[in-house]
Design brief:
CATH class of the largest domain in chain A: Alpha Beta
Structural class of chain B: alpha+beta
Number of strands of chain A: 5
Helix content of chain B: 25-40%
Largest interface: A-B, 33 and 29 residues
Largest sheet of chain B: 5 strands, antiparallel
Strand order of the largest sheet of chain A: 2-1-5-3-4
CATH topology of one domain in chain B: Enolase-like, domain 1
Distance between the termini of chain A: 39 Å
Oligomer: heterodimer
Radius of gyration of chain A: 15 Å
Helix content of chain A: 25-40%
CATH superfamily of one domain in chain B: CO dehydrogenase flavoprotein, C-terminal domain
Shape of chain A: globular
Structural class of chain A: alpha+beta
């Protein structure tokens, strides 16, 4: 069964006809060409597909697109950039702290980190570890990721 | 995944009407249902998305109880000041479940209806091993297989799975009730008796000629609409979850406790264990034995150990008996320290 839905993704309006079985992740990647959100486990265990939906972080692999008709989606590629270097402060913090190796989990980590700070859960390393636990990094860059999140939270210049 | 039709009702009566048709599944947060459909655990022809039913969402005080709509997310419950003050055990159980992303989407109603994490059950497609939950009559691979994480109470040779929900354990210790709507009359089911052990399910099946793999009291087409938590006995309450990693992991065992203390003596205590049976397992004997006793570790341990005597561990999970007893002691102590 196909249903037409509208989504606002990284600031752009889309109308798209989706099969009811299609996840939000597959809609982003396969139908709209937005490949920032990654498919890791496709079971909600790794967090690589994390996006902001109406301001809240969630696993786009565990969401049916049809259930999010009219939603505002923000991926790591759509975070508001600083004009000087074209980067969001968290993207800059990840680079400065060398918070990745292969980079596959990074877009999900960055989106989750934006939410983690916004929720007020970036007070110290232990709190960041707990509230970033839904994002796995198989390269194990966890110490650098936590440092990047804390640094960005401290600077407080988040868009 | 099967093809399915999709409907999004705006009210509970409309949802119940749409849900009263065979091969229909309700969708709330979807964090469990999508994986069931991927694995072939569920293959509905119709999905009724209840996400827009506003009357089933929210938290409010109603008389001497707390009303929590079934669609309230775990994130909303863990952050709610009323829950944190009046029933901290429930806020803690929600906080320790899943990941922040999942808690933003997962609902309390869906959480208590999640299915076991048994690896023989949670596999994709046609299974190369027996599993009575997936293929009734085929047998139980876990009984003689890898069952370190499985039940120590209430199991039968047909199934040794546990119920993994954290909030369910808290709700049992709170003596909450679960409000259910359906084609028949609306009713309230005590949370402590909502889930069924394999032994209970077998008895019900024999009595009513029903499917032996039934796991809860919920009938066909019925929908959880809300939870009611009685207030007054649970400001001193706590949830302790023991797991192999610090965060984002299911419990090896967990324990929820609510306690009322007067002049250093226990007036009332409720203790529920998680991940030891297909339901939150209440230590009723200890609850009775501890009345009038001081809140001392040795006293708690003696009563709780005695209450665990009827545990029936499997070959590879005998450690869970000691672990569960110790976790229960810690939960009661933590609850008692609250002011």
């Amino acid at each position: 069964m196909d249903v037409e839905i509208s989504l606002r993704v990284d600031g752009l309006e889309h109308r798209v006809l989706v099969d009811t079985r299609t996840t939000l992740l597959d809609t982003l990647r396969e139908r709209l060409g937005v490949t920032s959100a990654k498919k890791g486990c496709d079971h909600g265990q790794c967090g690589a597909c994390t996006v902001l939906v109406d301001g809240r972080r969630l696993n786009s692999c565990l969401a049916l697109a049809v259930a999010h008709d009219g939603a505002e989606i923000v991926t790591a590629a759509g975070l508001e950039a600083t004009p000087a270097d074209g980067l969001h402060p968290l993207q800059r913090a990840f680079i400065e702290h060398d918070a990745f190796q292969c980079g596959y989990c990074t877009p999900g980590q960055v989106v989750s980190a934006v939410a983690c700070i916004h929720e007020g859960h970036a007070s110290d390393a232990a709190t960041v570890h707990e509230w970033m636990s839904g994002n796995l990094c198989r390269c194990a860059a966890y110490p650098q990721i936590a440092a990047a999140v804390l640094d960005a939270a401290k600077k407080g210049d988040l868009a | 995944m099967n093809n399915f039709s999709y409907a999004r009702p705006q009210s509970a009566p409309e949802a119940v009407k749409l849900g009263g048709v065979d091969a229909t599944t309700f969708l709330a947060g979807g964090t469990e249902l999508l994986n069931w459909m991927r694995l072939g655990i569920s293959a509905p022809a119709r999905v009724v998305d209840i996400g827009l039913v506003a009357e089933m969402r929210g938290i409010r005080k109603e008389g001497n109880s707390l009303w929590i709509g079934a669609l309230t997310t775990l994130a909303q419950i863990e952050a709610d000041l009323l829950v944190r003050k009046e029933a901290p055990v429930l806020a803690e159980a929600c906080l320790r479940a899943a990941s922040p992303q999942i808690r933003n989407r997962a609902t309390l109603g869906g959480n208590v209806l999640q299915k076991t994490r048994c690896a023989y059950f949670r596999a994709e497609g046609q299974l190369p091993w027996p599993c009575n939950k997936r293929e009734p009559g085929s047998g139980c691979a876990a009984l003689e297989g890898a069952h370190e994480r499985h039940a120590i109470f209430g199991w039968t040779d047909a199934c040794v799975a546990t119920q993994p929900s954290d909030p369910s354990v808290a709700l049992s210790s709170l003596e909450a009730t679960i409000a259910v709507v359906g084609q028949r009359k609306a009713r309230e089911i005590p949370a402590a008796g909502f889930h069924l052990t394999q032994q209970e399910a077998t008895r019900i099946a024999a009595a009513r000629g029903r499917e032996a793999q039934v796991e809860t009291q919920l009938g066909a087409g019925e929908l959880i609409s809300a939870f009611r938590v009685p207030l007054g006995n649970s400001t001193r309450s706590a949830y302790v979850k023991v797991r192999e990693r610090e965060s984002y992991e299911y419990a090896a065992v967990s324990a929820a406790a609510t306690i009322v203390i007067d002049a250093g003596r226990i007036q009332r205590v409720r203790i529920a264990l998680g991940s030891v049976a297909q339901k939150p397992w209440r230590l009723v004997e200890a609850e009775h034995a501890l009345i009038g006793k001081p809140l001392e570790r040795a006293v708690l341990a003696a009563a709780i150990d005695a209450s665990m005597r009827d545990a029936r561990p499997l070959a590879h999970n005998q450690f869970k008996v000691r672990l569960a007893a110790n976790t229960a002691v810690r939960a009661v102590e933590a609850a008692g320290k609250r002011t």
